[in-house]
Write a structure and sequence with these properties.
The complex is a heterodimer of chains A (129) and B (339).
Chain A (H helix, E strand, L loop, with lengths): L1 H9 L6 E6 L5 H11 L14 E5 L7 E6 L13 H6 L3 E5 L13 E8 L6 E4 L1
Helix pairs in contact in A: 1-2
Chain B lengths: L1 E6 L6 E8 L2 E9 L18 H15 L9 E7 L3 H18 L3 E5 H7 L13 E6 L4 E6 L6 E5 L5 H12 L5 H9 L24 H13 L7 H29 L4 E5 L6 H14 L4 E3 L11 H12 L19
Parallel strand pairs in B: 1-4, 4-5, 6-9, 9-10
Antiparallel strand pairs in B: 1-2, 2-3, 6-7, 7-8
Classes of the chains: A alpha/beta (129), B alpha/beta (339).
Chain lengths: 129, 339
């Protein structure tokens, strides 16, 4: 998962939005940890389910903020009141778990979807880009 | 000393006034939005995290506070982090406004510290230093060492999901209600804790970190393997009991290990999950067996979740040390860390 994340991280551009979809345990947060590591983010990346989103400063010169969003416990438009949309316009890169729940408020055409699924074995995960 | 506490770091909107009386603390007002029957929604509703919701709830709470001038209040304590930035802002803006309007000093409070200090709200609780606090909630799972009052060092935390979050997500698998903690605890009463052997994450690693995403996934796989039993009440009860035991085992084991290593005199629980009966019982039993000289202190159930009384008491502690901040300087910090 981390190798895949590293590849994705290398090609990230300002304003990219990654929509991560898949059931519980499919590897969405693990993928984001890999992304963060590849982006040189030193802080621990934990599940933002309760805080909804966590912004991180990025020291590379391409974009300033990497925002880890988790739409698991919000309903559609609620996310708008949480200030997420500011990050859509300032060149930040966002990785949104359960992004399918908030399709309506995502800027048109910018989201790259990645689907995670549980494999047959317990340590297996299937990722579709 | 009388302090007004303000809490809006996540879903709860809360205000409280706590007064000192000798060595004790008297909670004069304790208002948490979820207690007020303004809206009654059915069946496990997703909490309103929108800042707009805090803004809507605050005027009602302010009215119930019973003061328009802040007369008698010595300072205002407000949580400025960690949490959800737009929710935090509502509380902080209120704190700033009242500080300026009432001409009272302002204190910035760390939400995690407030949870730990909730243990001081019960005058019967005897906390001796060095002390260890297991802060465990929907959003946090950390071990904080306190060498003395006001001195905090984070010595362990979750690598992924918070314990409370794991409870919520497992409860969601069966759709047994929100918040998941009380729902699972209730179902667990009718199930066997040794029915299924779930992993105790990181239990053998020599550090004081936790991990609950693997346990969550283990439960998921178990349920997938037994689709036919998914609606069987006995099965659900067994899964809940077994999951609860695995989670509590991991929490208690690491806490006792950390307590021993750092030679603490008191272990405290803090945060929403500290209301879990199984956790409270197992911690007491474990300590009695392995660390009989260490005292176990548990917060009152009503102060385990997010509330402002704990913020006010944290405010008293900081006011005594004159840790004030100018309202022009206070800012929210969603990633604020303790220790």
């Amino acid at each position: 998962m981390h190798a895949f994340a590293k590849d994705i991280a290398k090609n990230l551009k300002p304003g990219d939005i990654l929509g991560l979809i898949g059931e519980l345990g499919a590897g969405k947060t693990t993928f984001v940890k890999g992304l963060a590591k590849a982006l040189g983010i030193k802080s621990r990346v934990v599940s933002p389910t309760f805080v909804i989103f966590k912004p991180y400063d990025v020291s590379n010169k391409k974009f300033e903020h990497f925002v880890h969003v988790d739409a698991y416990r919000v309903e559609g438009e609620e996310l708008q009141d949480v200030g997420i949309e500011d990050y859509f316009e300032d060149g930040s890169v966002l990785a949104i778990e359960w992004a399918d729940k908030i399709k309506k408020i995502l800027p048109n055409g910018r989201t790259k979807w990645i689907r995670f699924s549980l494999g047959k074995n317990e340590n297996e995960r299937i990722v579709e880009f | 000393m009388k302090i007004l506490g303000i809490e809006t770091s996540c879903d709860e909107t809360a205000l409280a006034i706590v007064e000192t009386k000798g060595k004790d603390f008297i909670v004069k007002k304790d208002l948490v939005y979820s207690q007020i029957p303004i809206h009654q929604k059915f069946g496990g509703v997703v909490p309103e995290v929108a800042a707009r919701a805090h803004v809507e709830k605050m005027p009602e709470l302010l009215k119930r506070l019973g003061t328009k001038t802040g007369a008698g209040i010595d300072a205002i304590a407000v949580v400025n982090g960690p949490g959800l930035v737009t929710s935090l802002r509502v509380g902080v803006e209120l704190g700033k406004t009242l500080s300026e309007l009432w001409n009272k000093p302002l204190i910035a409070i760390n939400h995690i510290e407030a949870h730990i200090l909730a243990n001081w709200l019960n005058p019967k609780n005897q906390i001796k230093f060095p002390a260890l606090a297991l802060v465990v909630s929907g959003g946090h799972t950390e071990l904080i060492l306190m060498k003395k009052a006001g001195n905090y060092k984070k010595i362990g935390q979750t690598l992924d999901d918070a314990a409370g979050e794991a409870f919520d997500k497992v409860a969601k698998i069966f759709n047994i209600g929100y918040p998941g903690g009380p729902a699972i605890a209730k179902w667990a009463e009718k199930g066997k804790a040794d029915a299924i052997d779930f992993p105790r994450p990181l239990i053998n690693k020599p550090n004081f970190d936790f991990s609950f995403s693997g346990l969550k996934t283990a439960v998921l796989y178990e349920v997938k393997r037994n689709k036919a039993k998914a609606k069987d009440k006995k099965y659900i009860a067994d899964v809940c009991a077994s999951f609860q035991e695995a989670a509590v085992d991991a929490l208690v084991a690491k806490t006792l290990k950390a307590a021993k290593k750092h030679n603490v005199k008191t272990i405290m629980l803090a945060g929403g999950v500290s209301a879990n009966k199984w956790l409270r019982t197992e911690l007491k039993l474990g300590a009695k067996k392995f660390l009989p000289d260490v005292g176990i202190v548990l917060p009152d159930i009503k102060y385990t979740g997010d509330n402002a009384a704990m913020v006010a008491i944290a405010g008293i502690h900081h006011a005594k040390k004159k840790n004030f901040i100018k309202w022009e300087k206070i800012d929210v910090d969603p990633n604020l860390s303790l220790g």
